[in-house]
Amino acid sequence: AAPLRRRISERARRAGLAGAGGRRLLTARESEVLRLLARGRSNREIAAELFISPKTASVHVSNLMAKLDASSRGEAVAAAHDRGLL
Binning pLDDT at 50, 70 and 90, where does residue 22 land? Predict the structure, then answer.
């Protein structure tokens, strides 16, 4: 069972689905924000759609950009697409 668990964890990590230690790379909320970001939504539009404040939307965008090692919203979407997160 342990070798199978390691193989699954390694494949998930390589695909961008999990970070080191098998943890998910993005939270469920960050994944929702990413989906809207990929559709070209602004922080204000993301906030309205998810019933959160624009500041909270901004924090989620910043966090997912850091996790994807992206310096722009477009780069974050491209990195997520490359990792199979979209």
Answer: very low
